[in-house]
Amino acid sequence: MATATATTPSTPAVGEPAPTGHPIGFWFIFTGELAERASFYGMKAVLLLYLIEVFAYKRSDASSIVHLYVAACYLTPLIGGLLADLFLNKYWTIVAFAVPYVIGQFLVGLSNEYLMFGALALLSFGSGVIKPNISTLMGLTYDQQRPGQVALRNKAFTWFYVAINMGSFLSTLVCPFLRDYFGGALDPVTNKRADPQAGYFAAFLFPAVLMSCALVCFALGKRYYAVEKLGYMKWGQPPEPEKETRAERIKVVTQITGLFILVMFFWAIFDQHASTWTLFANDYLDLTISAPNVTQNAPYVDFFGPWVTYTLAPDQIQAVNPLLIVIFAPLVSILFARLGKAGYPVRATNKMILGFLITSLAMGIHAYAGYLAVQPDGTVAKVTVWWQVLAYFAITIAEILISVTGLELAFTAAPQSMKGFITSLWLLMVFMANFFINTPISRLYPSQDEGLHFASPVSYFGMLSVAMLAVTLAFVFVAQHFNRNQLKA
Predict the structure, then answer these.
(1) Pairing, β 383-384 against β 285-286
(2) What Rg, from alpha-carbon coordinates, does the chain have?
């Protein structure tokens, strides 16, 4: 009598050909991540103006709070990685901390200052703990169910990043729209809305619903994920033998940290889109755009017929970044794959160096737009919003080259028992960027508030552009050392 062989979902039985498509679990992770990231980025997009308009915070203080919140969201991944690796495993860690995440999303928009800060604490723990574990669980699922199919796993990481940005694009468009629809557009004279509390409540309710959907979707896919084994111990059982020595772990962490610390400076610039980029859009950009009147010419779009104008909210422009990610991330992935097949492989560190240079360019674009807007007599003549769209195009390409590459590098370079920890270490750099750099630096953005500020956006963004060139030079030397060590290994 033959003995049945237990298999995990999407794993072929003995003798069957190995499947080459994405595992079923990937689609549950993809959909859940899309909804969760929509929740996170939608709330983050409107948080700055929420603090200013509802709670009357000074612009510099509101910017600092936004960056402190983002910092907290990227400090707690360290806790999440350790909890999953040591005690709970990745699936149960994600589910356990998604519950306070949902609660926080429903509380943050109630226009009570104490509830708001309590909700931000819940959100930072929920979002942060989930971050390192969901991508790691996806990678482990491919290692178990599609062993040896590195190219397929690479595509999965790219599509995972696309899911993040599809959710971000959706929510950064919808949340400001809901705020303006239910709360009234910002009056250019009084700088107030008819009912800001109702507007922001509606804006925050949308991410809350999306986060609830994310939890349900992710939980439904449990049977399709990797079978997890804790790296160090199991409840009630002795620890399994460790495959990597302590010295090997320390060596890997040391090598990766050298790269990660310099990536911190990229995140410092990138995350200012929720603070100084929004303030720049509000102060220096003409936010009206023109588009074909699709209602008048339906079902066809007449590009040569009458057009209508639409005024963007200053925080709504953030949607350009995730939209461009969705468009260009697969294209960049295909480009590098074809270069590799043609005999011209591009190292991960070289991609990141190019990303640093393009980040400096994005800051230079902002500085030039500020130069055009600020007149010799100190008055402001607002320039077209397309300048910031161009800057978003640059920072998006840089993000693909640095963030997508770095996320995969963190997973592949990490020892098996430390993948959650190394991924959380990558995310910790975002904490350091926002806590140690953005919290004080963003306060220097030109403002009428009391305190020390740069005189104009030209000097502020010009300073950031030059700083990124210096960081790029430092990264070149660190990357050379990292690559030599990888070859020796």
Answers:
(1) parallel
(2) 23
DSSP state for residue 309 in the 8-state scheme = E
N-to-C CA span, the chain: 47
If you count them, how many residues does the chain have? 489
Q: Which residues contact 379 (CB under 8 A, 6 or more apart)?
A: none
193 in any annotated domain? yes
Q: How many CA atoms lie within 13 A of 371 on its CB side?
A: 10
Q: Band of the pLDDT at 7, cuts 50, 70, 90?
A: very low
The tokens of 1 are what?
């009598």
Report pLDDT digits (tens) over 350-374. Answer: 999 999 999 999 999 999 999 999 9
Domain assignment present for residue 5? The answer is no
Question: What 3-state DSSP class applies to 301?
Answer: coil
Structural domains of the chain, count: 1
Looking up residue 378, the CATH number of its domain turns out to be 1.20.1250.20
Sign for the CA dihedral angle at 287, 292, 298, 299 comes to negative
* pTM for the full predicted model: 0.84
Q: What is the mean pLDDT of residues 213-219?
A: 89
> Measuring CA to CA, how many Å separate 322 from each of 43, 183, 221, 325?
15, 26, 26, 5
Q: Are 35 and 217 in contact (CB under 8 A)?
A: yes
Q: By residue range, what is the domain housing residue 291?
A: 24-228+245-488
Q: Closest by alpha carbon to 271, among 312, 316, 321?
A: 321
Structure tokens at 152: 């397929």
The residue type found at 217 is C
In a domain, residue 464? The reply is yes
**Average pLDDT score, the chain:** 84
**Residue 383 to residues 63, 280, 429, Cα–Cα distance (Å):** 23, 11, 34
* Contact status, residue 278 vs residue 49, Cβ threshold 8 Å: yes
Question: 383 — phi, psi (to 5°)?
Answer: -105, 170
In a domain, 15, yes or no: no
